[in-house]
Amino acid sequence: MKKNAVSLAITAAIAAVSLVPASAAGQQDGKTQKQLIVSTWGLSEDSLWSEVYGPFEKQYNAKVVLDTGNGQERYTKMITDPNSTVDVIELAQKNVADGIADAKFASITPADIKDFDKLIPAAQEIIKSGAGAPYTLNSIGIIYDPRAAGIKISTWKDLWNPALKGKIAIPDITTTFGPAFMVMASDVKGVDIKTDKGEAAFKALEELKPNVVRTYAKASDVANLIKNGEIAVAVIGDFGVPVISKADPDAIYFVPESGTYANFNVINISKNSKNRDLAVAYINYRLSADTESRTIKALNEAPVNTRASVPPEAAKYMTVGKTAAHAKMVDFSYIRPLLSSWIDRYNKLMNQ
Predict the structure, then answer these.
(1) DSSP H helical ranges for 82-177
(2) Cα(325)–Cα(49) distance, integer angstroms
(3) Phi, psi at residue 77, to the nearest 5°?
(4) Cys-Cys with 185: which of 58, 204, 317, 331 at CB 3.0–4.6 Å?
């Protein structure tokens, strides 16, 4: 009888466990584990998990799910899906301008940002303008293998040297730095891009075309191209330097003395998000001095929090100090209305 009683007790206990509501799954310490869907680039995911997503999950008892890819592709995917579950989306300023015009983002104000007063002035201005929360500043430079290039490169204009025929990769116009490349090309021609709607830039592109092997979408594409000897030179965002340098240790990265062209990566909250509180917590976590001090080295991200610690070796590639002081911001309020026609024209010229 005792054995039967014990068996019945065990059976009852198992049944009780099996009857626990599904809603209790994922609970830790009595609190439901919330899910935050983050739309972001797929670059350096291992480092992001160790330095950002993993620690955030632990601190906030949350589950981070990533939606990765090219910024334009991710933005288009989010706005064309009325049932999109993306909570926060990380984009370059080019795509942020689209999101603002399309009214696809929830409001973020200075009051939402715990370290607002500690951010660099330009980042504060973007938040105050309603364009989201910038978390890093990056810019373009030139990376090249001197032996494969066969010449020394020191200026933007050097990219047009006939000696570089069939040796260069440039960012596609739909990428983060596609519009910045157009501004640079116009500057090489000595023309302010706002005065001619990009005509001088397209003239410069036409002249550069013999030197261009590929237009690329991701820094990893450049790493493979240079590793395989398909190119010797690339115009690249500074965030891509580590992965390319790993592929080709002989590659040299530099920013021409004339200056660079900068971009903020910005976090916005999707209007569809049902997790605003967790989304704001993620933004504040990303902008904290502690997180930015870790991501400086792990992700080559220039900080926007002035309390972040920047090691001298990390500043070699990032948009800080002198590089940041000589950085030209791209005016997307001017470029955005032109971009659709630019993309068509660019594709016919460079991608056919």
Answers:
(1) 93-101, 121-129, 146-149
(2) 31
(3) -60, -40
(4) 204
* Cα 294 to Cα 48, 212, 288, distances in angstroms: 10, 36, 10
Beta strand pairing status for 133-144 and 168-171?
A: unpaired
Q: Looking up tokens 């791209």, which residue turns up?
A: 330
Q: Rounded CA gap, 61 and 31, in Å?
A: 8
Q: pLDDT by residue (tens digit) across 183-196?
A: 999 999 999 999 99
262 class by beta-carbon count within 10 Å (0-12 exposed, 13-18 middle, 19+ buried): buried
Beta-carbon contacts of 72 under 8 Å, excluding residues fewer than 6 positions away, are: 95, 174, 175
This prediction's pTM: 0.75
**Tokens encoding 8:** 């019945």
216-219 — which CB contacts under 8 Å span 24+ positions? 216/169, 216/170, 216/171, 216/172, 216/175, 217/70, 217/172, 217/174, 217/175, 218/42, 218/43, 218/70, 218/175, 219/43, 219/243, 219/244
Residue type for 120, please?
A: I
Q: Which helix (H) or strand (E) holds 254?
A: strand 252-254
Q: For residues 322 and 254, what is the distance between their CA atoms, to the nearest angstrom?
A: 12
* DSSP bridge pairs for 302: 137
Q: Which of 39, 136, 99 is nearest to 332 (CA)?
A: 99
Q: φ, ψ for residue 138 (rounded to 5)?
A: -135, 170
Residues 340 and 317: their CA atoms lie apart, in Å, by 32
CB-count burial class (<10 Å; 0-12, 13-18, 19+) for 229: exposed
Determine the Cα–Cα distance for residues 200 and 205; give it in Å rounded to an integer.
9
Q: What is the pLDDT of residue 31?
A: 67
Question: How many residues in the chain?
Answer: 352
Question: How far is residue 24's CA from residue 8's CA, in Å, rounded to a whole number?
Answer: 25
Contact 261, 168 (CB under 8 A): no
Give the CB-side neighbour count of residue 133, counting CA atoms within 13 A: 30
